[in-house]
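Pasting as-is:
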Amino acid sequence: MPRLPSLGTLAADAAGTARRFPFVLIAAVLAALAATLTTEELGPEALQLRLLAAASLAIPLCAALAISAEGTAWKPPSRLAFQALGLVVCAAFFAAWPDWSDVLRATRFWELMTAFALAITIARFLRGDRPVAFWQFNATLLVRSVSAAIAAGILFVGLALALLALDKLFGVPIAPDGYARLWFTLVFVFGIWFFLGGVPRDLDALERAPQYPAAVKVLAQNILMPLVTLYLVILTVYFVKVVATWTWPTGWIGWLASSVSVAGIFTIVLLQPIAQQPDEKWVGVFTRSFWFGILPAVVMLWLALYQRIRQYGLTEPRYFLLVLSVWLGAAALFFGVTRSRRIRLIPISLILLTLLDFAGPWSSHEVARRSQLSRLETLLRRNGVLDAAGRRRSSTQRVTGADAGEISATVRYLVTVHGADAVRGVLGDSTARRLRLESAAARHGGEPQVRAIVGALGVAYALDAARGVDGRRYSFSARASHAAPTAGYQFLVPLRFVNDTAEARADTALAAVMVRNTPVVRIQRGADVLLEVPLDSTVVRSARFLAGGLQGQVPGDLMRADASNDRAKAIVFFSSLRGVDRKPHATSDGGSGVALIAVP
């Protein structure tokens, strides 16, 4: 009968894991600290996110470097130094963070996270071809990661209930943020530590005693394979329809084809150990069918991408999808024709593609920037803003209509993703200086900057019209404000948002109510409306503070509205407010706040 390990054994195993992966655990502790700071809003928000992103990237990178070093004849100090390179790389990521826009930060983070996570799977298999050990190694990692997630979840529930019991039964105060701290500690520290403890060291042992878990076979054979087959049939029938009707495939085909591809490749990888068994010939049939069956979806994906790129140019998501579709088509032909079982080529090729896309003139960021800038210049030439040589023309006629919407959308993309430097060429140096598009202001453009640039080009800002919105959406939130005097008011009531007038009348007590998509706050008792407080002044003041922008934080004393008559007077303080600034009055469809009310 198996015996449970003693506490001494568990402690020794944990210490051995710490000696094996010291820098991974340091990164995990830093990530837990950064996540806690982010949740509790301690310190500058930009610093919190930078630290969380860099530490999160260091976890898989340091782990991959440590695993790779174990396959060498290096001495322990050399292995530790090699593992520490992961912290150096992520420190460089931390230093470069402020120079990127929010979109580039998220894109580059997930690019590196994907590459580093995949690097763990092939770190010990770059030299030589050991397909059995490769599959067993990664199957162990998969099982261990699921076990770590389950263990962290169970521990969190158990410890959170224990803290709750201390609070309710013994009056021990537990800070509201204490549960978040516990969660981050368990996920980043315990979960990572637990996972690392199961990373195999002896590849020869994996080769000698291969195992194929029954749960894996059930998942692949009874769940994934039927689903992938079903969706391949759907995609093939749709391809026949596209050819027969000679219509462009819908843009949604990209997500479906990508999802089926991921599921199909994952299924093939799970089924590889039994692919050559005489009684499992169906695995080989499924594998060949999948690789050839996915080709029609790839063709439709190219057609859909061509249509979107021809109309609107390249952006980062379209470029990603284009590159991945080319990779998928090449992989389908290679594995379908050669029947190769070298599945390690899949993560290796994806890592190379991801790292190549991170920087350089071929990267998605640079290709998308050049594509959108070329599209902007074409639109400006067509409307006489630029001449054939790309120089600004002096014209008193403003660009309006559909082209104004397209120009507004393109400028907004370039400024918010790549910074105002991306459009400096079409503005000219003098205009750029006049708009103060320098240093940090040129890197991080907001809505006011976009409007100023579009206006400087002689174009009527029409982004909302281009998106088919009747009016411009706004979203304001209040910064901390000074205390408001309550003298002369008898009641403080929370602002209530409701869907219709009937719902507003349901409460017979004195209330401050806003029916969604209306321009006023109603002070009422049931059906009796005592006073209506208009929103227009609040929206105007907030937008003026943001230099014409309609999104952002404004001082709390600007986020107020007041009105009075012979039946009541009221001041409404909004902590947040969102809606549409349309003519003749701005309306609201959500927010929060309180109202001070006085009635005779």
